[in-house]
Amino acid sequence: MEISRSTPLTQLPGVGEVRAKKLEKLGLTAAGDLLAWYPRDYEDRRRIYNIAQAPTEGRVCITAMAAEHPRLSRIRKGLELVQVKVADHTGALHLTFFNQSYVERAIRAGEEYIFYGAVEVQGRRRTMVNPIFERAEKQTFTGCIMPVYRLTAGISNHLLAALARQVLPCAHELPETLPQHIRQNHHLAAAEFAVKNIHFPADEQALELARRRLAFEELFYLAAGLCLLKQRREKLGGGITFPLQAKEEFLALLPFTPTAAQSRVMDETAADMTSGRIMNRLVQGDVGSGKTAVAAYAGWLCAKGGFQSALMAPTEVLAEQHFRSLSQLLAPAGVRVGLLTGSMRTAEKQKVRAALAAGDIDFVVGTHALISEGVTFHALALIVADEQHRFGVAQRAALAAKSGQNVSPHVLVMSATPIPRTLALIIYGDLDVSVIDQLPPGRTPIATYVVREDKRQRMYNFVRRQVAEGRQAYIICPAVEDNPDAALPGEESPALNLKAVKTYAETLQKEIFPDLRLGILHGKMRPREKEAAMSAFSSGETQVLVATTVVEVGVDVPNASLIIVENADRFGLSQLHQLRGRVGRGQHQSHCVLITSTRSLEAMERLHTLASTTDGFKISEEDLKARGPGDFFGNRQHGLPQMKLADLAGDMRLLTQAQQAARALLEEDPQLVRPENRPVWERVCQLFSDTPDIFN
Ligand code: ADP
Ligand code: MG
After folding, report:
1. How many domains does the chain have?
2. What is the pTM of this model?
3. Which of residues 124, 143, 162 is at a domain's end?
4. How many other C-beta atoms can be found within 10 angstroms of the C-beta atom of residue 692?
5. Among 253, 259, 286, 292, which is best to mutate for testing ligand 1, by the most ligand atoms less than 8 A from CB?
6. Is 625 part of a structural domain of the chain?
7. Which of 278, 441, 631, 655 has the highest Cβ tally under 10 A?
8. What distance in angstroms lies between residue 321's CA and the mean position of ligand 1's atoms?
9. Same-domain pairing of 470 and 389
10. Could you tell me if the CB of 292 is within 6 A of ligand 1?
11. How far is Cα 649 from Cα 624, in angstroms, rounded to an integer?
12. What is the separation of C-alpha 72 from the centre of its chain, rounded to a whole number of angstroms?
């Protein structure tokens, strides 16, 4: 059969309806999709050993002859064994296959096979369990560098590799999308070579060439897209200019005196907004440094000038909290604050939308519903994005197109996540940066403890004492519900001991704190329930809040002085730092308890790092080292298109090269209209396809 890129996978042998459905889950429906399904890793199966010399560490290939006919035995219902002895001139190897009765017929005495598996030594016997095997003269998945793919339930790596091998010939149809001169200048392999060798590399060198070409390509389209965005913004010209207001008037509204750092950042913001340029500013400040006050100031300036502003928060919980505190703060100044979240009743939403269109709301607080749900503004002049690490370049660009005016709104981005410089260059490359490098006075540093299970009772007593003193506590769990089947990636056995909000809260209420008022909060609750739970905690009605990481960013309840994180080793350091930032917001001495039963020394070390410092930058660097950038940013939190091969933090040199190449190309052909550059344009649009319209 002739396979082309558009051949449906269902036409390949071995892909029935059931498997096709599962493949579809991975986004794989046609041969071309498989070509673009790059391996996440490789296994070197090139070296073939003889039995006596095969190492007993890791998995290896061994050539041997079946010395007998395989024996099938049924141990009990659901457990079948096939055993067979194989041998070469150096010795014998005893193979056991569990529940693979077909092996009885597949292996024939006297024939030679290659077996791939882990050799174990039991006394004088060498054994191997469930090896992969193939006939020595029909080698496909042994004796080579084997791709390791991301999988889904019911789809094995073997199957994917077999399919990939079948569709590989159609790689010759792949168009060469990189301009010829760029390929030459940067010594990049051709598309066909790259795709073939990324799946089944001939050797290490070929793999490196393939990887370099494909990673460069990704970074190049990313850089070109970002360049185009910037270009477009620059074309938009000047922003709305505000008259300078007396800052004292705003400061009088605040219940506190701003720190010098807050004050400086307020001035920088005001300078932008009164300058005639469009503001594009990032306010970076550690958890609790008081970024909200800066946002409030900018919103106030805007309202004073007769324009509207919008604040976007990453979660509804946070949006509601901002709505409450900003209304309280700004109402006395006559600023009308509104709330718009995805989960509000349709009628309510309608009302808020109408008010926004009519100009009856000055400052609207919301979630991404603000961009996604066709909101029209009367005169939007400022957008504040809180917790920017969940709100990337593309989203900002989409918002900028929403102003309702012919001019672009000012953009103020707030983030507590200190990100490594390399990444900042890409993500915030187009922003000016202000840093709030000072915490409000009177904060006592949060005392952090790493404890093990044996201290659990003492920990509960501590909760009780804090509550007796009038304080409140958070207890954070990694899961919502008990799920004994949920194995974490890379884990063989189910993660049985993860604390889950629902059941744990019940146990706590019944057995540990029958006399305390407990509340729960997690992402699966209805928005109304969440809101109720959060306001009960804010008002002090709930004394202990058992929650997931929904409270991670931004939540501000100054009376809470204790946060306990269950299964603390399951969280990234930056995430723990954010969680810890939920306490220490009032004048009370605050505590953070990280409880863990991990046996990993490394995990313990990481937790102790967190306990020993409150420096967000230091923590994020540790995190980057230990867990890599993907994890650091969580699931695509940087808002950039997903990179398949390129490592945004690691491939710095390649990134710089790709960036230069993209810039040079756009200088020659700013709109990418030349026929030879159309493929680049198409690939850029494809890469940013999660945020449609941004290049219109
Ligand atoms: P961030 O968003 O930077 O984490 P917030 O803006 O939520 O921090 O502020 C944290 C807490 O500190 C809030 O309760 C806020 O009212 C308070 N706060 C902010 N600035 C000051 C200040 N200058 N003096 C005293 N308290 C402050
Ligand atoms: Mg905040």
Report:
1. 3
2. 0.61
3. 143
4. 11
5. 292
6. no
7. 655
8. 13
9. no
10. yes
11. 9
12. 47
